[in-house]
Amino acid sequence: MQTQTDLESKVKAIFKKVLDIKDSEIIPGAKLDESLDIDSTEMVEISVGIKKELGIALKDNELKKTHSFNGIIGILRSKTQAGDGHSCGCGHAH
Description:
Blueprint: H1 4-19, H2 32-35, H3 40-54, H4 69-80
Helix pairs in contact: 1-3
């Protein structure tokens, strides 16, 4: 199982590659569409990158640009742990 730090650093690397940004531009609690001006196409690229790099299968539109970076980490953590617990804290059912 990946640790929180491992997962975060791998997802940050995917964000940096897809969006061509620096670590410092990723604000953990801010909505991605507001903090990074991310669009739907970039979210698809990030989802594909997560599946390819981390082997975590995501449903279409499971990750949304209105999520925060921390929200996405929570969704991914819930998928890598036993059970179907939803832990992203966004208030939505995924």
